[in-house]
Specification:
- The protein has 145 residues and is an all-alpha fold.
- The chain has 7 helices and no strands.
- The protein has 2 domains: 1-72, no CATH class; 77-139, no CATH class.
- Helix 4 packs antiparallel against helix 5, helix 5 (81-93) runs antiparallel to helix 6 and helix 6 (101-113) packs antiparallel against helix 7.
């Protein structure tokens, strides 16, 4: 778990952006901690990587950061429903990867097997269906370890 794997994080450090102290604390916790700390860091950083906020932030930096966040989620997805849901969400939306509905369905199955909330999984399954049953954004959820 290295800073270089998350280009947006290193950019925020270099620019001394507002909120960087919180990002540093989250990264340090992730380095020393377990799955929950790594998940929280990746989720927080991914949220910033959806848009361009910081000077020097580019679509390529965002893409590479989203790939690194997806790697965290997929590494944990066999053990934790929230990580499996985030892996499914990223695969479904193409964050850090190409859109892959089959992979999204696989992670949804895993999340359900790990006790994921059925209303979230049901909503995501609608989006992951081939062909899609409905267009639109997925609902928000708050994962808990």
């Amino acid at each position: 778990f290295k800073a270089e794997s998350f280009p947006l994080y290193t950019l925020l450090l270099e620019n001394k952006e507002a909120g960087v102290d919180a990002a540093i604390r989250a990264f340090e916790l992730a380095q020393k901690g377990g799955d929950a700390e790594k998940y929280n860091f990746a989720l927080g950083l991914q949220t910033v990587a959806y848009e361009i906020y910081a000077p020097g932030q580019t679509a390529e930096i965002n893409r590479e950061t989203l790939k690194a966040c997806l790697a965290v989620f997929e590494e944990q997805a066999e053990r934790h429903a929230p990580s499996a849901l985030m892996a499914a969400y990223n695969r479904l939306c193409g964050f850090g990867c190409e859109i892959d509905k089959a992979a999204a369905r696989k992670w949804l199955d895993k999340a359900e097997a790990l006790g994921g909330k059925s209303e979230i999984i049901d909503a995501m399954r609608v989006q992951a269906a081939e062909p899609p049953k409905k267009k639109g954004l997925l609902g928000k959820f708050k994962p808990k370890f």
